[in-house]
Structure formats: C-alpha cells, structure tokens
Write a structure and sequence with these properties.
The chain folds into three domains: 7-13 and 47-185, no CATH class; 201-332, Helix Hairpins (Orthogonal Bundle), CATH 1.10.287.1490; 348-455, Rossmann fold, CATH 3.40.50.720. The chain is 63% helix and 5% strand. The chain has 16 helices and five strands. It has helices at 6-17, 67-74, 77-87, 90-93, 98-108, 114-126, 128-135, 140-153, 156-164, 171-257, 264-333, 359-368, 384-393, 406-419, 431-442, 444-447; strands at residues 348-352, 372-376, 396-400, 423-426, 453-455. A five-stranded parallel β-sheet has the order 2-1-3-4-5, with helices on both faces. α10 (171-257) packs antiparallel against α11 (264-333) and α11 (264-333) packs across α15 (431-442). It is rod-shaped. The two termini are 39 Å apart.
Length: 471
C-alpha cells in the first residue's frame, strides 16, 4: 500500500489545514508550494455530500490504513485530477506523476478538509446504488455475505465503499474487505502476466504457421512445375502421334496406287500391321488426353488450396496484431483507459452470440478499450425481444457468425443496416477475431467509415443456418 513521503506530507499539511495566506496564486505556485492552491476555500463552510451519511462513517472517520485502497480502487487518477481542478487545487492536477496525485489525496483523507470532502461527495454520488443495497444489511454477517456476492459478480468498487463506510461494519468486516482487495490486486497482476504469456505463445504459433505455409507453398510450386513439365511432354507426344497419322494417310494413298501391283499382298499385310499400330497409338493418345485433363484438374485444386492457405494466414496475422495491440493497452494503462488511439470512449458494445466460455475475455477486452459490453447469446436462451432492446441500446455491435442462430444473425444485420449502426461481422468467435473487431471499432481512422454491418475475413455461407455454440 502507499506510504507518504515526508516532503509530500509537508507540502500538503497547509493545504489540508487551510493555513496558506489568501493572496497565494494557485495557478502560478510550483509543485513544492501546492499548499496555496486552496487558500480561497473555507473548509468549515463545505457542505455535506448530497443524500447525507447518517449512521455511516465518512472518509476521514476511517483508519488511515484504509484510505489508500479506497481511493485507489474506487477512483481513477483522472477522477482525482478532475476533483483537484474542481476545488481549486490546480497544481495537484499538474503533479509530475500519478503516484504523487494519489498520495496527496490519501494524505488529505486523514481529516476533514476540502480535498477529503470532495472525495467523499464523489464516492457518495457515484456509488449511491451500492450504498442503498448494503444499507439493507442489519448485521456483520449480512454485510460479509453482500460483500462476497459483489466480489463474485465483479462489482468491487461500489461494494468496497459501501461496506467500509457502513454503520455496522466493525474491525473484522473492514479487515476482511481490505484483505480481499489486497489479494485481488495480486490476482489482477497474475492475470496480466498470463495474458502476456499467451500472447508470446500466439506469436510463436504464428511464426510456425507462417514457416509451414511457406514450406507448403514451395512444395506446391515444385509440384505445379513438375505437372506443367509433364503436360508439355504429353503435348509433344500428341504432336508426334499426329505426325504418325499423317504418315499413315500417305501410306494408304501409296497402297491404293499399288493395289494392282504384284507387291499388293505384301503391301496389304503391311497396311494391316500399320492399322493395328495406329489403333494402339489412338488408344495411347486417348489415355494421354485423359491424363492431361486429370493433371489440369489437380493443378486447379492445388491453386485453390494455396489461395485458401494464404487467406487463413492473413486472417491469423490480423488477429494476432489486434491481440498485440490490446495486450499493449493492458500492460501500459493497468486499467480500463485505452492508449494509442484505441478508445471506445465509454461506448456500449453489444456482442450477439459468441462462445459463453469466452464471454469474460470479450468483456475484459472491451473494458481495456474504455468501453462497456453487453451480450445476447444469439438465440440459445435469450428471447428475440431482448435482442431488439439490446440492439437499440447499443452504440456498436459485434456478431461472431459461427456461434449465433440464423434468425439472430439476420435480424442483427437488418437492424444495423436500417439504423446505420456500426456492426462488425466476424467469421469466428475466437478471442483474436473479437480483438480484431474491437480494433476496427476503436481505431479512429475506421470509426467514421463504419456505418451499418461490415464483414471481417470470410463471410458465412448465404442462407446457411449457423449453429449456436453451447459453450
């Protein structure tokens, strides 16, 4: 957890207690003199958070050990900078690092002052629903049960604030929540390491597939060259056979001329022999033509196979690039704020279909891009009426074509085309394909062009009923 450095504590001490002269200029004071930023604020005249906190602890009432996890878990650093600007502490917003801003607010939370009141109001406003839900608990056991349920559902921020400030929360309840948040931070770090390991494995697999594809392409080229050479030889043989047939015709004319000559019988036997040879050559010619046709058909199949392998390789490359880009976002931001332009700007992304066992991975990718994800299973259990409502409430749609019913797939395309809503149709429900679709939605150069349904990769067969995945 965070520890206050002596220099930062001494700089914040006047700010917390309002001991700075009223003539200080907050806009020009350097970071070392940030105490002057709130000289014009009267802490004693600050109003209580809207809705009141009757029967509940306030931020400055809690043990200072809990201030760091509460502020770090329930508020983003950008939220803290916004609160600093709002109350007039502009130099806090200009702090060189996010850590200094965080430590400043943690230090201010020890007692009631302008900064701690601003944080109290923001937390009460943001997590009103969670506070009301936890207010129904009438015992420590009921509080712990609600807290464990919120952890299981992933609703950590609001639940943590509500349980830590609940009027019935004793030391054991708050310590349990504190311990859970502490271990959750370790689990998040371990999950990020697992994602980076998976990305490294995907890169190795991509290199292996690319190498195998290049080897297969070279083999196909060699086989194709051999077949072309064989076809050329067969054509030369056919030309030779045509020359033999012409010679046969010349001999027949000569035989006709010699028909009444004494050599007729010998010539007649010779003609019979040549006719038999011609018949044999004719059969060989027919066989050669059949073989040539078969080789041409095999050549066409080989060319189609090479094109298919190339298309699959390109699709895997795009999926890996999207995963690399999103994994980079997670490693740099350590939260839901997107970097490098991949920002969904809080938009709601609807996933129609897809694999249920990958739904959490889809949601994690959307949250890393600063978005919110809702999901309709594409016809397995959710009703069609719910699909219509989900489509209307979403800002953009992603539809994996291999894990959705034909009816839901068609309705999604028609709705997005009619309403001009961004909709990305992906051929498969893998995490890589979903990441590629998110890149298309979050990347600024593509956002203006996406109006209605757009397909990525190979399209699903027209009129085919696509099965809904059970997992």
């Amino acid at each position: 957890m965070c520890e206050k450095c002596p220099e930062l504590s001494s700089a914040l001490d006047p700010l917390i207690r309002g001991a700075v002269p009223a003539s200080a200029d907050a806009g020009l004071v350097p970071w070392s003199q940030v105490a002057g930023a709130l000289a014009h604020q009267d802490v004693e005249q600050a109003t209580e958070p809207r809705g009141g906190t009757k029967g509940r602890s306030r931020l400055w009432d809690l043990w200072h050990k809990y201030h760091c996890p509460i502020i770090g878990t329930c508020l983003e650093v950008d939220d803290l900078r916004r609160l600093a600007r709002k109350v007039g502490a502009r130099m806090l917003n200009q702090a060189p690092t996010d850590f200094e801003v965080h430590v400043s607010f943690v230090a201010a939370a020890e007692e009631k002052n302008t900064l701690s009141i601003a944080v109290q109001k923001e937390l009460e406003r943001r997590y009103t629903r969670s506070v009301k839900r936890f207010a129904a608990a009438k015992s420590c056991a009921a509080l712990l049960e609600l807290w464990q349920h919120a952890l299981a559902e992933g609703e950590v921020q609001g639940a943590f604030w509500a349980v830590m400030t609940h009027g019935l929360a004793d030391v054991s309840v708050r310590s349990r929540a504190y311990e859970d948040i502490h271990m959750l931070s370790h689990q998040i770090g371990a999950g990020l390491r697992a994602d980076l390991a998976a990305l490294a494995k995907a890169r190795k697999d991509l290199a292996r597939v690319r190498k195998d594809s290049e080897t297969e392409a070279k083999q196909q080229a060699r086989r194709m060259q051999a077949k072309l050479s064989e076809i050329g030889q067969l054509r030369e043989r056919v030309a030779q056979l045509e020359g033999i047939e012409q010679g046969y015709e010349a001999m027949r004319e000569r035989l006709y001329a010699l028909e009444h000559a004494p050599e007729r019988r010998a010539l007649q036997a010779r003609v019979t022999e040549l006719e038999q040879d011609n018949e044999r050559q004719g059969r060989q010619l027919a066989d050669a033509e059949l073989r040539a046709n078969a080789l041409e058909a095999a050549l066409g199949a080989a060319e189609s196979e090479v094109a298919e392998i190339t298309a699959r390789l390109s699709e895997q490359v795009r999926a890996c690039e999207a995963l690399e880009r999103l994994a980079g976002i997670g490693a740099e931001a350590a939260g839901c704020m997107a970097q490098d332009g991949l920002d969904l700007a809080g938009r709601r992304i609807l996933c129609v279909g897809g694999r249920s066992d990958l739904a959490s991975r889809y949601r994690d990718l959307v949250q890393r891009c600063n978005g919110e994800m809702i999901r309709h299973d594409g016809g397995l259990e959710d009703s069609q009426q719910r699909l219509q409502a989900a489509l209307a409430s979403a800002d953009a749609v992603i539809c994996p074509a291999d894990a959705v019913s034909h009816n839901a797939y068609s309705r999604t395309k028609r709705f997005c085309k009619r309403m001009g809503k961004p909709c990305v149709l992906v051929p498969r429900s893998s995490v890589g394909a979903f990441a590629e679709a998110l890149t298309a939605l979050a990347d600024p150069p593509h956002q203006q062009a996406l109006q209605g349904p757009v397909s990525l990769g190979r399209r699903a067969p027209a009129g085919a009923e696509v099965s809904v995945a059970a997992k």
